[in-house]
Amino acid sequence: MNERPKVLVVYFTQTGQLKRIIDHVLAPLEGKADITFEQLVPVTPFPFPWGKQQFYDTMPESVRGVPRAIEPIKVDPNTHFDLVILAYQPWFLSPSQPTAAFLQSEAGKQLLKGKKVITLLGSRNMWLNAQEKVKQYLHQAGAQLVGNIVLVDKSPNLVSLITVLRWAFKGKKEATKYLPQAGVQENEILTSNRFAAPIENALTRQQWDTLHPQLLELNSVELLPNLVILENRGIKAFRYWAKFISEKGGPGASSRQGRVTMYRSLLLPGIVVLSPITFVSSVYQLNFRKKQLTQEVEYYKGIALR
């Protein structure tokens, strides 16, 4: 009798949403694969709900890829796995710090070397730069990205911004009279088990070239053109502020809190102003630079690394 394929799931979650997504995606594989879970644990935990100043003070190191340390992983890095599922969420258009810490660690690199990897994201709506960074880390580790699944909050951009900040700062996810529930919509989570069939097929046949196209047919990655433009603008601003704040010290340093407060006071008004401008710009580009923008969208929906 053939052995069941071995799958490792590496993840970090604060709210539990990402673990629910993982469980629904993998539910149909129960009994068909041996699944090992590796939860990433920061040495010094990140709070939830967040304090506002600490939340914004986490931005520079997230963007610059200088993460807080995590506890040693429990799984032996030399263990054979047919597939690794790396489940993560973006922080400030970058991989969450525990994810970045794992990908930069020697144990993480050793574990990922030569492995097939599927990335699984639970996100507000902007994840492109985070995924680009993850693709770079995987390439450096000698891993092969074979698929990407992205579940996002499909509420309008400014609505999802309000609900996610309410969730982050007050711990309130539920809908109100005027606002929808925060996070990825429940139906998106419940129907994510549709991705298990192509994953099982690839595991059984050990044929990976067709996996991502099959996932895309199931709407594993949906991307609005205006978000490509908005995020490209946003990450440039984040990189500037990350450098500007870091010049005054490390995480939590009192010497940099004035700059953190300045950044904090400008971020939300900047998003409110940029969102409609970016939407108009995307309409313009779809009309006059359609080929270039369409190519960008197709690239980000794929798994190749430039």
TrEMBL record:
Record InterPro entries: Flavoprotein-like_sf
Keyword Membrane: yes
Alphabetic keyword roster: Membrane, Transmembrane, Transmembrane helix
Gene3D superfamilies with a match to the protein in the record: 3.40.50.360
TM ranges: 266-286
Protein name: Dialkylrecorsinol condensing enzyme
Organism lineage string: Bacteria, Pseudomonadati, Bacteroidota, Chitinophagia, Chitinophagales
